[in-house]
Design goal:
By secondary structure, the protein is an all-alpha fold. It has a single domain, classed as UbiA prenyltransferase (Tetracycline Repressor, domain 2, Orthogonal Bundle), CATH 1.10.357. 76% of the residues lie in helices and 0% in strands. It is built from 13 helices and no strands. Helix 2 runs parallel beside helix 13, helix 5 runs antiparallel to helix 6 and helix 8 packs antiparallel against helix 13. The radius of gyration is 19 Å and the shape is globular.
């Protein structure tokens, strides 16, 4: 019984790629602590837990919905046929039920924060769930994915303050262009499959060489926004140390991948970006208090 339950839990964690939470969570926490460092608002453990819950539930809904919507393609793509739904570990119906539950819990958690987060929660769901359809009609799907994750720092800031502000919006711009850039790299693996299935992606549309160039441009904008965020906040040396590390890792990931060698895409996509996100968030938060 315990083994069966553990197996199911493991299956759902794999379905939603829980480990990839490191991409958006550090920026959500940066947005939260940016607001909480203001004496006008202060720190609230209750709010922090609610923000983390919103992040987990929203991402779980988005990832499970993506797997549900794409399971027909996953079943015929050699790279993805071992994913949970095509492999029979989780049924499509169970995955969809998980999406509904996660979405309901996300809205409920947002409702316990403040009225603005409650009102905006369905809008956030439309963006993060709607992304899964975009590969059917636009090669800009990578940037829509980035937009979905970019809601994290602004949403966390609003959770504390109940209003918008410039700096968390710049943080959101960092996330949008950063995620879009590395998702283009990830999509290189499926360029031929996407063409065969008439799916849209930048590698399928532009070819690998030009896709990599666009990824570099996107990450160049990311670095400009990192600088803009530091200047806007009049940040100290800890922020700039984190910014330098983050920037260096972005440059490093592009050295790992070329149009004719995709053997290290997973390292570039998951490992390097995971470290980059955690490092930036940790240094940005430390700079607020030290």
């Amino acid at each position: 019984m315990l083994k069966s339950t553990a197996g199911k839990i493991s299956g759902y964690l794999s379905l939603i790629k829980f480990s990839h939470t490191v991409f958006a969570m550090p920026f959500a926490l940066a947005g939260f602590f940016l607001a909480a460092s203001n004496p006008q608002y202060g720190f609230s453990m209750r709010l922090l837990l609610l923000v983390i819950m919103c992040m987990v539930f929203a991402r779980s809904a988005a990832m499970a919905f993506n797997r549900y919507i794409d399971h027909r393609f996953d079943a015929i793509n050699p790279r993805t046929l071992k994913r949970e739904i095509p492999a029979g570990i989780i049924t499509p119906g169970a995955a969809l039920s998980f999406v509904v539950l996660s979405s309901a819990l996300f809205i409920a958690a947002a409702g316990f924060i403040n009225m603005l987060t409650l009102v905006l929660s369905p809008v956030a769901l439309i963006v993060i769930l709607g992304y899964s359809y975009t590969k059917r009609f636009t090669a800009l799907c990578h940037f829509i994915l980035g937009l979905g994750l970019a809601l994290a720092p602004v949403g966390a800031y609003i959770a504390v303050t109940g209003r918008f502000d410039l700096l968390p919006v710049i943080y959101s711009g960092i996330v949008l262009t950063w995620v879009a850039g590395f998702d283009i790299i990830y999509a290189l693996q499926d360029d031929e499959f996407d063409k065969d299935q008439e799916l849209f992606s930048i590698p399928a549309r532009l070819g690998r060489k030009r896709a990599l160039k666009l990824s570099v441009i996107s990450h160049s904008v990311t670095l400009l926004m990192v600088i803009a965020a530091g200047l806007t906040a009049d940040s100290g040396w800890l922020y700039w140390a984190g910014a330098a590390l983050f920037s260096g890792l972005l440059v490093y990931q592009h050295s790992l991948v070329s149009h004719d060698d995709l053997s290290r895409v997973t390292i570039a996509f998951a490992t390097v970006n995971g470290i980059a996100g955690v490092a930036f968030g940790a240094f940005a938060i430390a700079d607020l208090y030290l």
